[in-house]
Specification:
This protein is an alpha/beta fold. Helices cover about 25% and strands about 15% of the residues. The strands form 2 sheets. Strands 1-6-5-2-4 form a 5-stranded parallel β-sheet. A two-stranded antiparallel sheet has the order 3-7. α3 links the parallel β5 and β6. The protein is globular. The termini are far apart.
Length: about 140
């Protein structure tokens, strides 16, 4: 964990970031929640998902109405497409009293660039024009 992002330019003072490889290891070994704050329409256009059984999807626009769904007793890894919105939500959750919140530095884009394993969500009808960033490499 670190104070200044390495994979994205946007920064919010006072939040902690976690790099994609460390986050992936944490998701495999620890009882954490991956809070995906992408909007629903983005899920239809991005065919990548990480560890679905630990993933909680609450779109950024509905988060304040759904705070009670986020377990305060677990470490929360907040993720979006590139890490900017998730940095803002990490800050918001800290101010809402969540004790262990981390921004996934660089978001899904950085995860893909680090070569991390993903499972494919083909339910969205993903094709070579889905803008997920990896369809050219055959994910869909």
């Amino acid at each position: 964990m670190y104070d200044k992002p390495r994979y994205q330019e946007f920064h919010v003072a006072g939040i902690k970031h976690i790099d994609p490889v460390t986050a992936w290891d944490m998701l495999q070994k620890e009882d954490v929640v991956l809070l995906d704050i992408r909007e629903s329409f983005e899920l239809n256009h991005q065919c990548l998902k990480l560890v679905p059984e630990k993933q909680l999807h609450i779109p950024m626009m509905t988060l304040m109405d759904r705070l009670e769904e986020i377990p305060a007793n677990k470490t929360i890894l907040v993720i979006c497409a590139v890490g900017e919105r998730s940095a803002k939500i990490t800050n918001l959750l800290i101010y809402q009293g969540f004790p262990n919140v981390l921004n996934l530095d660089g978001g899904l884009k950085a995860c893909h660039e680090q070569g991390l394993p993903f499972s494919v969500n083909n339910t969205a009808g993903c094709d070579s024009h889905c803008d997920c960033g990896s369809c050219d490499s055959g994910c869909c």
